[in-house]
Design goal:
This is AraC family transcriptional regulator. The chain is α+β, with helices and mostly antiparallel strands. It is built from 9 helices and 4 strands; from the N terminus they run E-H-E-E-H-E-H-H-H-H-H-H-H. The longest helix is centred in the C-terminal third of the chain and has 19 residues. The protein is globular and about 55 Å long.
């Protein structure tokens, strides 16, 4: 069994596309999750370059650096927690303690590594993920801003509104009324 680390996997659709790509290449996929796939064996006719090219054609890439693997694991955990509402994070736990617990590294190391790799702080990335989730829920129109703030762990709807406006230039109410509201792909945050 071999684990392949894959960059830019952000959703269940990504998992399906990666699995289909691997299977077309002749891999036997044992399991797949955000950021990695477990394979039974490596097809003898296939090179790493072949695999990288096939993944890049689908806007993914191989990760062959341990530090980049850790950055991608960090992103996958945060995306699962914020975007997919997986809730592995304990209710009273902050994201720094959550990442330390799940990844086994000190948060300051993770934060430094993330910033140097991604060009933004972990805190800004977390906020950007939350704001994209807020945009999604605002477009659905099924929850109030207070309900959204509560679900995402904000101390108040005002705090959420302030962060939302700082990132988008719009209030949540203005965004909700906008016909062509723009959301960002998660792999571009």
């Amino acid at each position: 069994m071999t684990t392949i680390q894959i960059k830019n996997m952000v959703c269940n659709r990504c998992k399906r596309v990666v699995q289909e790509t691997l299977e077309k290449l002749g891999f036997t996929v044992l399991s797949i999750d955000l950021g990695h796939a477990e394979i039974a064996d490596w097809p003898s006719r296939l090179t790493v370059t072949d695999l990288r090219t096939a993944l890049q054609n689908e806007e993914f890439d191989l990760i062959d650096d341990k530090r980049q693997t850790l950055v991608e694991q960090t992103k996958a955990l945060l995306i699962s927690e914020i975007q997919h509402q997986v809730t592995e994070k304990k209710e009273a736990e902050n994201f720094s303690a959550f990442l330390e617990r799940k990844l086994g590294y000190d948060y300051s190391y993770l934060s430094h590594l993330f910033s140097s790799s991604e060009g933004q702080t972990l805190e800004k990335y977390i906020i950007a993920l939350k704001i994209e989730k807020v945009k999604e829920w605002l477009q659905y129109g099924e929850m109030t801003l207070s309900e959204i703030a509560f679900k995402l762990g904000y101390s108040s709807s005002q705090h959420l509104s302030t962060q939302f406006r700082q990132l988008t230039g719009l209030t949540p109410g203005q965004f909700r009324k906008t016909d062509n509201a723009i959301r960002q792909p998660l792999d571009r945050l």
